[in-house]
Amino acid sequence: MSLLSHPARVALIAGSVGLALVAGGCGSSEPTSTAGGDGGTSAECAPYAEYGKHEGKKVSIYSPIRDVEADLFQQTWAPFEKCTGMKINYEGTGEFEAQIQVRADGGNPPDIAFFPQPGLLERFAKAGKLKPASAKVKELADKNWSADWTKYSTIDDVFYGAPLGASVKSFVWYSPSMFKERGWAIPKTWDELMTLSETIAAGGVKPWCAGIESGDATGWPATDWIEDVLLREIGPEGYDEWVGHKLAFNDPKVVAAVDKVGAILKNDKFVNGGYGPVKSIASTAFQEGGVPITAGKCALHRQASFYANFWPEGTKVAEDGDVFAFYLPGNDPAKKPVLGAGEFVAAFADRPEVQAVQAYLATADYANARMKLGTYVSANKGVDIANAQNPIDKLSIEMLQDPNTVFRFDGSDLMPAAVGAGTFWKGMTDWINGKDTKTVLDFIENSWPKS
Amino acid sequence: MTTVSSTVTVTQSGARGAAQRVRQSLTSRTAGIVAIVIALLWTTPTFGLFLSSLRPEDQIKTTGWWTFFADPQLTLENYRQVLFSTSSSSGQMASFLINSIVITIPSVLFPLAFAAFAAYALAWVPFRGRNLIYIGIFALQVVPLQMALVPLLSFFSEGVSVFGTQIMPAWELEGASRFAQVWFAHTCFALPLGVFLLHNFMSELPGELIEAARVDGATHGVIFRRLILPLVAPALAAFGIFQFLWVWNDLLVGLIFAGGTAETAPMTVRLAQMAGTKGNEWQRLTAGAFVSVIVPLIVFLSMQRYFVRGLLAGSVKG
């Protein structure tokens, strides 16, 4: 009763109504403050002269990368901003995939987006939302990246943007000290890997540990496993066919590859070191999947290079340290296909300042500057390996720069989202939980969008 | 006749007796104990979260909060990171807290004001078709707000055009003025429920009161201000609290209309970003959750008597 008895409170409400009318009626924008770029000294800015002056211009970047990595991005391009006079508004989000769609549909897209999924980029390109990259960006990308990379952002012969960062997924993490102590050698072929697993298991340690729990993306680490082995079994061309659904998901060749993974992941003798039986894989967070290695309860863990960030505080990641990684071997040691992932810099606008940012991000200068600041891997051929901040980055870059390396992108990021970010994840989780290979692959095959 | 009335009284007293028994059994000692047990059970997760927020990172990540009792280790490091870290994508909760307040207060006051006016007009100003309008507003509650996100966003960024003719220009807001978009969106989404609640409450008021006021020469404005507003204050407070909690905890609308930068984004957006790109910094979430829960807690505790009273608004007479 007493809450609103006083006339002053009525005035408050009346006032707020007035405010509402003002806010709703005239939505004019405030005068924008000019970005603080007064040039800087000419020597400092010489490398950026080619990008021109864009005094007071703003470029917005939308990306799934956040936290420390995002800070390092911003530090890297700070001199570029200062010298060109533009302001880059960086926004990292955990809901990139859903939000970018809403923003683009709502007519409010960012200028530039870092797409971690070429499949998503392709969808926007086909919808006509993306602007083709400038000739300069294309030239830089062709110079700095192999065709294995640039083909992922080339849709219907139009090039949309250069790659940015990269991560290598074909790694098996192990403990160098443990291997040395027990006299185990790093396997060079798949058969050696299986023999090693037998040896370790015979010694009373479960050789493998894994975790595929990842909230609503549960299952993705298992899909990486399958892709990695499939890439070795049916070769890069076969892999491309499978990704493009020219090879059915339940094809006998795929079944064979999945069963090959099953010989490890669904073998109670081999998993799940430090956690329990096979089914514990499904309930173990992927961040925790390899941690038992540091406690000597598990010997091997297949996970991407970025897993270096997940080891407990104080773990030394190096060839002579507590943990390190080796290349997941295939049947033929001469062939080294690499499964990986990365981001692509695509633009929704073609203003000159936006194209300048795209061009700058495609240079080797950018990649080197970024690497000097902290852990970073790029497939950019101009990257100087001496700038790598840690041994695992170094190993990754060596693998990516090796001209004999055949690179393939993580397949689930290329497939239609209904499969690549849906039934494939779910199917693999069911598979770990006991469903047989054929049933699971039939289920995924049937879920592939028609038309 | 006598038999009939006596059975009626019997059933009535029987019903009264049942109510009595229910009341008695609810005030007994066992009921009290059960209530305490339930309260404890319900508070345990919150308590665990709170304890977690004070534990060091490696402890949070390796053991459950209950191990605290065996191995007590406390730190304010999580809160320091969350509140004062200068990284552009983690911490800085303090400035996002301000954003949340700037978003929430107008987003509560606007719908409150509009809904009160609309509810008064629909309840006490006789005009043709007002029932239809009322049913229409009521029906709008069924529309999920997710459906309106894209159209509303394009309304802001492209304006409205019909067959190529621009009817309303784009808002083209940048920087801090994007708050207006969020206020607008929250106001739109809150109005159907607000009008419905307040209308129900207002139409329960005795008509004689309003007639008497009109006989004395009061205009609608005076009736609304002097008579209606004081009488529906509990309902206003209840709806205000509902709206406050909804806006404060909202992630979706904030994310889409305010963006994710420190300039305009509410705290919930920051909370969602805080765990790091690959979710490896989730120890910050516990502390972040507690920072964000403090303000609603204060609001709820200081206004809970209106809350309980207003909960019954429109549902029961008297």
From TrEMBL, chain A:
The keyword tRNA-binding does not apply. Pfam families: SBP_bac_1. It comes from the Bacteria. InterPro entries: Bact_solute-bd_prot1 (IPR050490), SBP (IPR006059). The keyword Translocase does not apply. Keywords: Transport. Coiled coil: none annotated. Belongs to the bacterial solute-binding protein 1 family. PANTHER family: ARABINOSE-BINDING PROTEIN-RELATED, OSMOPROTECTIVE COMPOUNDS-BINDING PROTEIN GGTB. This is Alpha-glucoside ABC transporter substrate-binding protein. It comes from Planobispora takensis.
Automatic annotation (TrEMBL), chain B:
It holds the Pfam family BPD_transp_1. Coiled coil: none annotated. Keywords: Cell membrane, Membrane, Transmembrane, Transmembrane helix, Transport. InterPro entries: MetI-like, MetI-like_sf. Its main location: membrane. Residues 97-303 form the ABC transmembrane type-1 domain. It is a multi-pass membrane protein. One of its GO terms (biological process) is transmembrane transport. This is Sugar ABC transporter permease.
